[in-house]
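Backbones bend. Shown next:

***
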Amino acid sequence: MSNMNPKKVEYIGYLGTILSCITFIPQVYQTWKTKSVGDLSLIMVLIVVSSTIVWMTYAYLVKSKPIMLANAIVFVLSLMLLYFKLTY
């Protein structure tokens, strides 16, 4: 990978960012729309919130914008799910 263009590598990171983020959008939307959280695992949501904090810290330390962006967005979406789980 050392002979790859750094910009191309970063584009791969941004593609991963988009794909990671869109995985949560249908769940957040469905939960908001139906206000049904019975099948939503609180443990899973807490793990996602925790893991995104760790990933954002790592991304900051290694200065990786794609990883930081992806995890910031997933963090917000998972906080929304946590709010829904605790509210509904």
